[in-house]
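Technical annex, item 7. During the second reporting period the consortium partners agreed on a shared format for inverse folding records so that results from different sites could be compared directly. Each record opens with the tokenized structure and is followed by the designed sequence. A conforming record, contributed by the partner at site C, is shown below for reference.
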């Protein structure tokens, strides 16, 4: 975040890092789309030939994932639009809307179809047929899904390393819904393939089709859990998720580093899109200017703050006389803030700064 007192302050020149982040998310989605499309076609053929309930569930899973990637591509495109007069806080939250559609698609086209088909196949007593094709398709699918998952994991691990947190925690807390969706769907796909393999294998060795049906139901339950988690995370961001304490502290440090700012008594940060925040602060300025000059100084600071690629809008007001001031918990600015790749979020961020 730019500081008037230092041209080298964090956030003054992170545009390269920020511009790399969006293409990386887009690449993650495109790889997932290509892998899911190929896998969906292969699984559908195997399901038609073998009649395996587990393969039908996996085919439904992959077609749901393929459709979801289209929603995520739309989310990336529409959420990246610049703010205008009708949308002063930008279009970032539209990313969560389209990601929500994708999560609902996973629940209906994936979970419900798989569970319903599995329940319908519980009474089947026929022996397993043409299982060789199933094994081949499952193996190829595992490789393709694994490639997509590795891309999502690589992207998540890079940001998690900068935050010094576990990868899974970063994925769950990240303000980037496309990364979270691809990571979760690919991880579920790999687990689902193992479940499908067990269903087909146990059906083959025991001659009991119930194992295949149970595999289909298990895949459906897995997809249902993943979909509910994704729906809940998008819901939280649409309602307005506060930022993490580490980001709040970094912003407070940057505000106090400015020569014009003497103290800060209030600070609110809220995500309005992936890596985009709405900043509100109450500050006490150095000196004792007239009201007209104070208004101009506040506006210049706001414009300076909005130079940062992760501040959608900044609103500053004067502190109430005698109000308790906020003090940084640390002067350290995390790498994830310093280089502009602000994806972190943690519930309970609001109010973590104490006077």
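Designed sequence (site C submission):
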């Amino acid at each position: 975040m730019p500081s008037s007192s230092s041209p080298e302050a964090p956030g003054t020149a992170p545009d390269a890092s920020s511009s790399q982040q969006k293409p990386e998310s887009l690449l993650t989605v495109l790889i997932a789309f290509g892998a899911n499309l190929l896998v969906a076609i292969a699984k559908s053929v195997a399901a038609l030939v073998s009649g395996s309930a587990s393969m039908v569930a996996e085919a439904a899973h992959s077609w749901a994932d393929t459709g979801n990637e289209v929603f995520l591509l739309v989310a990336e495109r529409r959420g990246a639009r610049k703010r205008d007069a009708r949308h002063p806080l930008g279009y970032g939250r539209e990313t969560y809307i389209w990601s929500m559609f994708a999560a609902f698609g996973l629940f209906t086209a994936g979970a419900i179809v798989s569970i319903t088909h599995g329940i319908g196949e519980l009474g089947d007593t026929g022996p397993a047929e043409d299982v060789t094709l199933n094994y081949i398709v499952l193996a190829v699918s595992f490789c393709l899904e694994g490639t997509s998952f590795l891309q999502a994991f690589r992207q998540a691990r890079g940001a998690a390393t900068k935050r010094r947190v576990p990868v899974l925690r970063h994925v769950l807390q990240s303000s980037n819904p496309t990364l979270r969706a691809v990571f979760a769907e690919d991880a579920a796909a790999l687990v689902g393939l193992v479940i499908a393999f067990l269903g087909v294998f146990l059906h083959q060795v025991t001659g009991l089709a119930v194992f295949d049906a149970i595999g289909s139901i298990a895949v459906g339950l897995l997809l249902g859990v993943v979909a509910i988690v994704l729906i809940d995370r998008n819901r939280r961001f649409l309602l307005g998720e506060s930022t993490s304490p580490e980001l709040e502290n970094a912003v407070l440090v940057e505000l106090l580093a400015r020569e014009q700012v003497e103290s800060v008594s209030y600070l609110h940060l809220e995500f309005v899109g992936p890596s985009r925040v709405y900043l509100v602060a109450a500050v006490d300025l150095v000196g004792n200017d007239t009201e007209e000059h104070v208004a101009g100084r506040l506006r210049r600071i706001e414009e300076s703050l909005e130079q940062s690629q992760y501040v959608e809008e900044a609103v500053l007001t004067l502190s109430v006389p005698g109000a308790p001031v906020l003090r940084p918990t640390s002067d350290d600015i995390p790498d994830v803030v310093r280089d502009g790749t602000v994806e972190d979020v943690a519930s309970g961020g609001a109010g973590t700064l104490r006077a």
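The beta strands are 261-273, 276-285, 311-318. Residues 15-50 form the longest helix (36 residues). All partners now use this format for quarterly exchanges.
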